[in-house]
């Protein structure tokens, strides 16, 4: 077994298995041993599933020997955010309200992963019911940022990101409602893909706000993200060969996204602009009245749906929740059905306007997160938590509100990511652009 396997991309591991150079059973044991030895495992994994992992690895080995691998990632160990249902294994969504919840069946996305040969290492921690972008969860666990053990990892897919960043999984599946894939990916120097709402099944996933919830992978490379998407959709991977930035047009969104950036974030973004220009991209800047107006609708859109889904459960045992997260849910009770419907009808108009305004660009470019990871100790202050949470999610939320797909890439500056935002249902195009941008940045 090789500790180097824990630093490799999922695609690289998959190629090694396909070439007969990596035994998926030995690979799985390597990761399971790391889970046993790491002091961070309890803060990253809600529960591990070694028995399942070993059984899946044995079957993957047989397929590899028989020349019958089911996908490019057959035999590769991954983690699942603890809101995707797994048959016979607790799925609690980071909340004491759901303690002991054990589903009878896999979510379709989990079942698709098993069919493709992904080896499931376990379920990762998240913020309560996925309703925070910080990764701070005093009710269960708060995974540490890979760049600062005293800072949060970002959320809500906090354990998903750190399972990959700390070498405790080769890739991870998370979910993104307002930034929950991209924030932790950016803060832990990973690639994170927010898929278009409705593209991938959310059946069997514990909901937050179903009209915004989207699944998405957190990985070491754009190629890994492309492979995870294809595996879970049961289709051929996106062809990334020959991707280039030369002649591509990238639009920098001046509206809101560039306001109040932390110094390191500003530096990383400017360096990314220069790198893309050197690679032949044409950079332009534009403003968007649609984005500005949509941001003002976020409160009614998110909290109303979230409280409609969870209000009765929360009020039956409110003491089981971290107060700032609980009060964020409760904010939805102050809006009427009329408010909610009007907001959604207006958002649909704004989305159409934004899509039309950006149709001439290959992607919109923004800093992934405006701030750097805050210290865990500081977030015990409720007011600071609330303010910091809103700032962490500000930029990522633009993609959710506009109905876009989005990809965050590490810039080379620790905990600083740059995002490419694409039109709805254009993930393949975005991934090709992303792999070229990744090359330019490295």
What is the approximate shape?
globular
Average pLDDT metric:
98
The major pleated sheet works out as: 11 strands, mixed
| Alpha-beta content class | alpha/beta
- SS field, number of helical segments: 15
The strand count comes to 13
Fraction of residues in β-strands: 5-15%
Low-confidence stretches: none
The side-by-side strand order for the widest beta sheet comes to 1-3-2-6-8-7-12-13-11-9-10
What is the straight-line distance between the termini? Answer: 29 Å
Helicity range: 40-55%
Please give the radius of gyration in angstroms.
20 Å
Q: H/E element string? A: HHHEHEHEEEHEHEEHEHEHHHHEHEEH
Please describe the structure with a list of short key phrases separated by commas or semicolons.
single chain, 442 residues, alpha/beta, eleven-stranded mixed beta sheet, two-stranded antiparallel sheet, 13 strands, 42% helix, 15% strand, globular
Polypeptide structure, described:
The structure is a single chain. With 442 residues, the chain is α/β, with parallel strands linked by helices. It is built from 15 helices and 13 strands. The strands form 2 sheets. Strands 1-3-2-6-8-7-12-13-11-9-10 form an 11-stranded mixed sheet, sandwiched between helices. A two-stranded antiparallel sheet has the order 4-5. Helix 5 links the parallel strand 2 (77-81) and strand 3. Helix 8 (222-233) runs antiparallel to helix 15 (427-441).
């Amino acid at each position: 077994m090789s500790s180097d396997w824990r630093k490799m991309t999922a695609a690289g591991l998959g190629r090694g298995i396909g070439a007969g150079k990596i035994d998926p059973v030995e690979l799985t044991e390597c990761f399971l041993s790391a889970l046993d030895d790491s002091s961070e495992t309890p803060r990253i994994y809600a529960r591990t599933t070694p028995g399942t992992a070993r059984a899946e690895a044995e079957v993957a080995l047989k397929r590899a020997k028989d020349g019958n691998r089911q996908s490019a990632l057959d035999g590769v160990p991954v983690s699942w955010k603890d809101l995707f249902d797994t048959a016979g294994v607790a799925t609690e969504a980071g909340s004491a309200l759901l303690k002991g919840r054990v589903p009878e069946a896999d979510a379709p996305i989990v079942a698709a992963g098993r069919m493709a040969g992904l080896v499931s290492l376990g379920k990762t921690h998240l913020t309560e019911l996925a309703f925070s972008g910080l990764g701070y969860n005093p009710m269960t666990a708060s995974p540490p940022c890979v760049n600062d053990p005293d800072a949060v990892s970002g959320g809500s897919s906090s354990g998903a990101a750190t399972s990959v960043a700390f070498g405790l999984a080769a890739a991870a599946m998370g979910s993104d409602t307002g930034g929950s894939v991209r924030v932790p990916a950016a803060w832990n120097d990973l690639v994170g893909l927010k898929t278009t709402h409705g593209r991938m099944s959310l059946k069997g996933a514990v909901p937050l706000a179903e009209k915004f919830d989207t699944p998405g992978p957190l990985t070491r490379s754009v190629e890994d993200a492309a492979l995870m998407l294809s595996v879970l959709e049961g289709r051929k991977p996106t062809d990334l060969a020959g991707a280039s930035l030369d002649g591509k047009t990238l639009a920098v969104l001046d509206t809101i996204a560039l306001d109040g950036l932390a110094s390191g974030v500003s530096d990383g973004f400017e360096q990314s602009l220069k790198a893309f220009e050197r690679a032949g991209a044409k950079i332009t800047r534009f403003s968007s009245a649609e984005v500005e107006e949509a941001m003002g609708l976020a409160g009614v859109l998110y909290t109303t749906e979230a409280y409609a889904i969870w209000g009765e459960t929360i009020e039956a045992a409110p003491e089981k929740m971290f107060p700032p997260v609980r009060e964020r849910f409760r904010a939805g009770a102050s809006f009427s059905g009329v408010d909610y419907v009007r907001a959604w009808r207006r958002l649909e108009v704004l989305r159409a306007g934004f899509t039309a305004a950006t149709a001439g660009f290959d992607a919109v470019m923004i800093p992934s997160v405006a701030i750097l990871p805050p210290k865990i100790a500081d977030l015990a202050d409720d007011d600071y938590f609330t303010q910091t949470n809103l700032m962490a999610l500000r930029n990522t939320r633009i993609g959710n509100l506009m109905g876009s797909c989005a990809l965050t890439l590490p810039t080379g500056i620790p905990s600083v990511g740059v995002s490419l935002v694409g039109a709805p249902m254009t993930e393949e195009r975005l991934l090709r652009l992303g792999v070229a941008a990744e090359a330019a940045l490295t």
